[in-house]
Design a protein that fits this description.
mainly alpha; ARM-type_fold
């Protein structure tokens, strides 16, 4: 005999919308505490939930929230990701300018990207609304939604799409996409994201920082990263890790123009994890001699020195020490680099930087 909760799960498909909304609302907490109730009868409740995301907005809100929470379960996650019609429906709904649950759909997409097979989204196509001014590629549409924020849909800021991008860029195919100029607008996608490294949203800043770092694993694209005529990433990485400290004139004038004469109220990013991510991106970029020389040319060292001194976080300080060791070592041509003050015991050794995989499953 089914329990009361199991009966509640069955009521989600009741013909009466008032019954459906009550059932869905009451089931939200159980999607976290008792996910197995949605796995009975060979995942029949999951099948129903996937259909119900097209229900009335007040019902769909709870349905999508339940799916966001249930996607933390590996079996359910794989079921969702492997359902092409379901994924296509999410992509169709999220680009509707008046979609009231667009933020929740962003969260769901971000969670689905935890599955490696979700990289197939890179090949999805659909017709965009005229308001979006994008092409028929789903990933381009999502990037353009992210850039427009609430100017496109008053109900959504699309911040969680940054987590989607971060997880997608664990895959080489996605990294290649983000550094390739797109035909429809002539823009390199990563340049659309870089402007958000100092955004007010912690979620957006973290997701963008992780995306940039993951894309930086594509070593052949490093010349594009440091070129002022291409991606020009350095100002957008260095500004978030720079505070209001004063440098002597000689140090300051050698820095990038954007880093010179900053206002006295300039604040370093408040999240040490984001700072660490940016420093590790610089370390990844230092893989090539060309990039190392550029980092030296624009005097990155004083910024890293001050970051190390002022951010009391062991992981940040460790990343700073590793970067300093790389920048200040003698190169193969025998030309020594300028002497700098020691930051302490450097722990670079044989350690390797791993791609970002720390954005947790979102629960609502």
């Amino acid at each position: 005999m089914p329990t009361e909760i199991e009966e509640l799960v069955g009521l989600m498909t009741d013909r009466n919308p008032q019954v459906r909304v009550i059932a869905a609302e009451h089931l939200v907490p159980y999607s976290i505490s008792q996910p197995n109730i949605f796995k009975r009868e060979n995942l029949k409740p999951i099948h129903n939930l996937k259909l119900l995301i097209k229900d009335l907005p007040n019902i769909a809100e709870h349905i999508i929230t339940i799916l966001i929470n249930l996607s933390a379960n590996h079996e359910i996650l794989q079921n969702l990701v492997s359902d092409d019609k379901f994924v296509s429906e999410i992509l169709r709904q999220i680009i509707i300018p008046t979609e009231p649950n667009a933020n929740l759909l962003s969260m769901l997409l971000a969670n689905l990207a935890k599955s490696d097979s979700f990289k197939s989204i890179l090949h999805k196509k659909q017709t965009p609304p005229d308001e979006l001014k994008s092409d028929d590629t789903a990933i381009n549409q999502l990037v353009d939604l992210f850039v427009k924020e609430a100017a496109y849909n008053k109900h959504a800021d699309f911040d969680h799409l940054s987590y989607l991008f971060a997880d997608l860029t664990k895959h080489a195919e996605a990294r290649h996409y983000f550094v390739r100029r797109q035909d429809y607008d002539g823009v390199i996608p990563i340049t659309k994201l870089k402007v958000f490294t100092e955004h007010k949203s912690d979620i957006r800043r973290k997701g963008v920082a992780s995306t940039i770092k993951n894309v930086a694993f594509d070593v052949p694209s490093h010349p594009l990263f440091i070129s002022e005529d291409a991606i020009d990433i350095l100002p957008y990485i260095l500004l978030p890790i720079t505070g209001n400290e004063e440098y002597d004139l000689e140090e300051s004038m050698a820095m990038l123009p954007d880093l010179q004469l900053l206002p006295p109220d300039k604040q370093r990013d408040s999240d040490p994890n984001i700072i660490q991510t940016h420093v590790e991106t610089l370390l990844l970029l230092s893989t090539t001699r060309e990039a190392r020389d550029r980092l030296r040319e624009v005097n990155v060292y004083p910024i890293i020195r001050e970051t190390h001194a002022r951010v009391q976080n062991e992981d940040v300080q460790d990343a700073c020490e590793r970067l300093v060791q790389v920048l200040m070592r003698d190169e193969a041509d025998g030309k020594p680099q300028p002497h700098v003050e020691d930051l302490g015991d450097v722990k670079y050794g044989d350690r390797e930087i791993e791609g970002d995989d720390d954005d947790q499953i979102v629960e609502v």
